[in-house]
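Changelog-adjacent note: as of this version, every example in the card shows the full chain rather than a window. The one below runs 311 residues end to end.
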Amino acid sequence: MTAHLLPPGIEVFERGWLSANNILHYGDADVSLVDSGFHAHQNLTLSLVRHALEKNGLGQLNKVVNTHLHSDHCGGNAALEKAFDCEIYIPAAEALAVKTWDMNLLSYENLGQECPRFAHHNVLVPGQQIQLGRYRWDILAAPGHDPHSVMFYQPEHEILISADALWEEGFGVIFPELWGEPGFEEVAQTLDLIESLSINLVIPGHGKPFADVEKSLSTARSRLDYLASDLDRNARHGAKVLLKYRLLEWRNQELSLINEWIAQTPALISSAKILNMSIEEFAEWLPRALVKQPQDVFWLMVIKSLLLAED
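Full-length structure tokens:
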């Protein structure tokens, strides 16, 4: 386990895949939380934060800092702000979209997801630093999975908070490519940036912290080459992930309503076009594609039950 590599004043709440990990930073002058999970899990997020504050004798959460604004990373913002009167920090490029709550610019409409509205108090600018708990962290641009995503790097302890730019076994879906915007080269550049850093520990957006950065970078680059060599692959992969993510939230849903959601979600409509399918063909193909290559027994059971219920 890598918890021993964490310096004093940092705790990682490893969450299920629907909610991004939360990283609590605490010191005498500041208590900060990086990323706040999905809105459906906001009560658990509040419970985790309250327990950590009480356990460590802390009085207040000062701020919530979002690596990017996908709904699984900022869905608990509104609840945390209400509970703790804390400030919200977001990537600077998202400031106007948050201020006007533009669902398209914020990707929620594109991806068919939901997020309670929140206000922001400050912005994160790549090239600057931010105080998180006891330590100063460099703010690094990390486009690819999301054009405006950032990472945080602590040079003294050589720790990287990578969000969805690097996981132990890959990285987040390259969503921009689904609607015709560049993403593959941006992922490659972000991986190059990570490789240029001296890193003892990576705290990813999903999954446990890990120390073998060289192995993870090799896996990520192999995955990137595979996806970038054929646009259909990225479209199929992104579509499957979006449906799996939605099913994690729904748990149970009628197949007719799933098909309706598919037909109304712009990113999936774009995926269908890349794959040269009508939306009707695509909506029939997508759930069955998950059955063909289930990631685990849970997904096999969920998708088969949906198809059997329809048949």
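Structural remarks: The longest helix spans residues 231-250.
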